[in-house]
Amino acid sequence: MSATTPGPSTTMPAPSAAALARVHELLRRRRPTLVAIDGPSGAGKTTLAESVAAEWCRRPVLVHLDEVYRGWEGLDEGAEELRRHLVPAIQAGRVGRVRGWDWSRSRVVDGRSIRPGRPLVIEGCGAFAAVADQPGAVRILVAAPLGERRSRALRRDEGAFDPYWELWETQWRRHLARGRGGVVPDLVIRA
Q1: Which end of the chain has the least Cβ crowding within 10 Å, N or C?
Q2: CA distance 104 to 119
């Protein structure tokens, strides 16, 4: 996540072949239409999600929660936005809408429309909460030690995230403590 325009990670290490094999085996067995990849900042969620999306034969639509969060204090609101609007529409076979967030101007912007018919992968802190009402969703948790996560996240965003690390980490911990999306993951990937 960056202060201006969040985007894909370029400095995170690629997921291991073993980790990807475990994910693809789960997807092959379950054949889900909805996948949530959750975990704390810097754990490697985006890198894993992009690898999965690129290699999964069902060619999913990938939505990054970074597109939706309402600023640095918007973790819960972003997940709720997808849970209430995007996920039910796609699961019902209707076009879903993702309202975006302009990080540099701190305001909601037109997002994108997502057509049903392909699996949907939601990635980001709070992804489990975004699929909380969906018992058939596959939930993948990506975890890494705090020091490693912090180092990765701060290096990834070249200083833009530095002033917000503690705020975001505290928000993540509160999110967990409140039990948002509180289900047991189907798979845990340790970075």
Answers
A1: C
A2: 31
Q: Could you tell me if 112 and 98 are in contact, meaning their C-beta atoms sit under 8 angstroms apart?
A: yes
Q: Can you tell me the distance from the alpha carbon of 68 to that of 74, in angstroms, rounded to the nearest whole number?
A: 8
Q: Regarding beta strands 187-190 and 138-143, do their DSSP bridges make them parallel or antiparallel, or are they unpaired?
A: parallel
**SS3 assignment, position 189:** strand
Strand arrangement of the beta sheet that strand 138-143 belongs to: 61-64, 120-123, 34-38, 138-143, 187-190
Q: What is the pLDDT of residues 104-133, one digit of tens each?
A: 899 999 889 999 999 999 999 999 999 999
Would you call 141 helix, strand, or coil by DSSP?
Answer: strand
Tokens 């101007």 correspond to 105
CA-based torsion, 68, 72, 74, 76: positive or negative: positive
- Residue 80, classed as helix, strand or coil, is helix
Phi, psi (rounded to 5 degrees) for 63: -120, 125
Question: What is the per-residue pLDDT across 52-85, written as a single tens digit (0 to 9) for each?
Answer: 999 998 899 999 999 999 999 999 999 999 999 9
The amino acid sitting at 146 is L
HSE (side-chain half, CA atoms, 13 Å) at 175? 26
Beta strand segments in the chain, E: 34-38, 61-64, 96-102, 107-114, 120-123, 138-143, 187-190
pTM of the shown model: 0.91
